[in-house]
Amino acid sequence: xxxxxxxxxxxxxxxxxxAPIASDLQLDLYAVERRGGTIRITLDTPPGxxxxxxxxTLSLATRMISQEIDVADPVHGKxxxxxxxxxxxxxxxxxxxxxxxxxxxxxVKLVGRAVAEGEQRRIDGRLSxxxxxxxxxxxxxGTERTxxxxxxxxxxxxxxxxxxPKPGKGPGKNKKSGAGNGEKKNGTKQNGEKETASS
Length: 199
What we know:
Elements: H1 5-24, E1 28-35, E2 38-44, H2 55-72, E3 78-84, H3 95-100, E4 105-110, E5 122-130, E6 134-138, E7 144-148, E8 152-157, E9 189-195
Parallel strand pairs: 2-3
Antiparallel strand pairs: 1-2, 3-9, 4-5, 4-8, 5-6, 6-7
Helix pairs in contact: 1-2
């Protein structure tokens, strides 16, 4: 996420508007980010909840957040507001993300500088612990590896569709489309275009 100082300020303002709404709806504000002309707000159910965010709740959250943005005008210029849920496979970007997903299977791609010669950039395993600076993965061979959050290029949880994969398949490779779960892998989006006055 490439954010300038100005963008960070705008994102902080949007986060401040969205956080109390998420709390009122008994949701977690999972992420707020800007990608080009889109401001994406990702809402999630609290850790340990059964099921994800419903379409009705996302629609309500979208209306409430949109109204607050109309009044507060926290972002200059034209943008698209997107309120979504993280889906079954959640991106892990912050220490809080890792902490809430302890016990789940994850896949991690490390930045180049964090990989010693002969090591793989990708690590798959069970997330067994996390702090404000690093996290620990239980590997298939029973060993554990601790990784600094700062050394992560990309990371996400892995959801297995159907039965466990056969030996050699690895996590995330046995997915079946529409496995009767009712949730879409990429989450659900509610979009609304916003245009605010430029300063």
